[in-house]
Amino acid sequence: xxxxxxxxxxxxxxxxxxxxNCMSCVIVCAERHTGxxxxxxxxxxxxxxxxxxxxxxxxxxxxxxxxxxxxxxxEVCPEEAIAYSETVRAWxxxxxxxxxxxxxxxxxxxxxxVVDPVxxxxxxxxxxxxxxxxxxxxxxxxxxxxxxxxxxxA
Length: 154
Description:
With 154 residues, the protein is of the alpha+beta class. The chain has four helices and eight strands, in the order E-H-E-E-H-E-E-H-E-E-H-E.
C-alpha cells in the first residue's frame, strides 16, 4: 500500500455531556447515505444502554492514522478499497473495490465501520463529502469538527 500524504486531516468528535440522545445525527446520516431513515445503516451510531444505567456511547469514525501514516482499516484491506482523500480530508471506501471481507471492521479500534446489510459494502464516515450533515443537525452541539489527526485508540 502506498502511504498517503495526510494533509490537514479533520474528524468528528462528540461531547457526551451535551448529547440529548435525540438521534437526529443517526437519522440524517442514514438518509444521506441510503436515502431512507434506517438507523441500522447509519455511519454514526448512538447507543443508550436502557438495561443498566442509561449510559450513552457513540460510535463514529475518528479518521485515525497509525504512526506509519495509514489508518488501521486501510492497512488491512486486501483490495486497497479504503484510501485517504485529500479533497474530503477523510478515509473513504471505494465501493467498486470493496469485497465485504470485514477486515476493516475488525481492525477499527472505534467499532466505527460496519458492512452495510443491504449493499454488502463496508460503510464508514466519509464526512458527507465535506458537508457534514450530522454536525449541522445536532441541536445541542454535541458533535463538532476537529482539525488535526485523531490518535488510534489503544
